[in-house]
Design brief:
By secondary structure, the chain is of the alpha+beta class. The protein has helices at residues 12-24, 87-93, 100-106, 111-122; strands spanning 3-9, 32-37, 72-76, 80-85, 126-132. The protein is globular and about 35 Å long.
Length: 133
C-alpha cells in the first residue's frame, strides 16, 4: 500500500534541494511532487506586499528537474491558485473544490499535520511530496 510523506519547505530553494537529494538517493521522479501557491509573476517585496504577507515567487518547473509528472494548476478555497506536480497534486486537481485537507488526510497525513501544512502553503511555503510503499 502506498503512502505519502509530505514536508513543508519555507523556500523554493529548500524545496529544490530536497527534490534533488531525494532523486540522488534513488527515488523515482514519478513518485515525487510539489505544491506551491501560483502567484503568477514573481512579487516584489516592499510597499506593495500586503501587511503580514511575505512576497513569494512561484516555483519554476525547471527548478524541479527530475519530476516525471506534468505541472497542474487548481484553486484551493482559502489558499487560492496553486500549481504542483506529482501524484498528490494530480489527486488534488481532480477533486472538486480542491480540498487540500481531505487530499492530505486521504494520502495518510494526520489531520493536525494537514492543517499546519495547508496553512504553510497558504503563507507561501512549498509542500514536497513523496509516494512510498
Amino acid at each position: 500500500m502506498a503512502t505519502h510523506v509530505v514536508a513543508l519547505m519555507d523556500t523554493r530553494t529548500d524545496a529544490e534541494n530536497a527534490v534533488r537529494d531525494l532523486i540522488g538517493s534513488g527515488f523515482d521522479g514519478e513518485d515525487l511532487g510539489f505544491l506551491v501557491r501560483d502567484l503568477g509573476e514573481p512579487e516584489v517585496a516592499g510597499p506593495r506586499a500586503p501587511a503580514g504577507e511575505r512576497a513569494v515567487s512561484p516555483v519554476p518547473v525547471e527548478g524541479m528537474a527530475g519530476l516525471g509528472s506534468a505541472t497542474t494548476r487548481t484553486t484551493i478555497p482559502g489558499i487560492g491558485p496553486v500549481m504542483g506536480s506529482g501524484p498528490l497534486a494530480a489527486s488534488l486537481s481532480g477533486r472538486a473544490g480542491g480540498n487540500i485537507l481531505r487530499t492530505l488526510t486521504e494520502a495518510g497525513v494526520q489531520e493536525e499535520h494537514a492543517h499546519l501544512q495547508a496553512e504553510g502553503l497558504r503563507r507561501g511555503g512549498v509542500l514536497v511530496t513523496v509516494r512510498a510503499e
